Amino acid sequence: MIKPSGVKIWRFNYYRPDTKTRALISFGAYPSISLADARQLRENAKSLLAKNIDPQNHQRELTEAETAMNSHTFAKVAEAWMQIKKSEISPDYAKDVWRSIEKDLLPTLGILPVSLIKAKTVISALEPVSGRGALETDRRLSQRVNEIMIYAVNSGLIDANPASGIGRAFKKPAKEYMPTIRPEELPAFMKAVSLASIDLTTRLVIKWQLLTLVRPAEAAETAWEDIDIENKEWRIPAHKMKGNQKRKASGYIHVIPLSEPALDILQTLSPLS
Fold first, then answer.
1. Which of 44, 81, 225, 268 is deepest in the core (most CB within 10 A)?
2. Whether residue 162 is found in the same domain as residue 132
3. Distance between CA 85 and CA 117 in Å, rounded?
4. What is the pTM of this model?
5. What angle do CA 115, 118, 121 make, to 5 degrees?
6. Cβ 100 vs Cβ 140: under 8 Å
């Protein structure tokens, strides 16, 4: 068809297989679409009609599928995964996880549709992290990409997870154990703490942690509302502790008996905090 403007368009006139009504489908403009191209497109349309498939509907479905594919970028899928992940971890850890994804994954993977991501794509994104010697960070990022892609599989966005084995492409970080001191070294350690040029509350929290054997964060965030002086107990609600979600949901309270030295620390702190 030649329009009044002079634009030449290839059109295919056919009967819809379901309603038997006439329909037109455009194959594009000449000369961008050559005669040979137009003939091939016509043969493709005839082939679909022979299978009772409407070429126009088929083209629309392909366009919609491509649009949907391009809208499911790694960044959007990662955000959706994070919303679920948040319910399983603490708010602070959730911030840490998302910060690492924003810093090391989204700059290279963010705009890519998950359907186009291959193992090599992810490995290339992680190589700079491995190159700067951050092997533990590399290991964690590999796990997070793997979880995001599993989420994409379970959401029906892709058929298989291309990132399932990417951790094997990098060196494993060497295990580093936390530094320790022997029991017989404790007296010297306590003497060093008492003589150290540090804030009083810092000195007391070190002693408090040794007397209660809680994690550093729990020791530092001790709240008066959780202290029962009369019964000599520290009652920590589950939501303030690192632990599984079932405990937190059940209203579990972790009870720590307080010794006289621990109570002395509280008495010292009372006028200060």
1. 81
2. yes
3. 21
4. 0.50
5. 120
6. yes
